[in-house]
Amino acid sequence: MITKLIHGEPTVSFIAAPSDVVPGQVVNLGNTPIIAVNRCKSGEIGAFSVGGGVYEAEAQTSTGAPVAGSPCNFATNVKIGTATGKHLGICLSVDGAVCRFRHSPTGTNVS
Question: What residues form DSSP beta bridges with 26?
Answer without folding.
Answer: 35
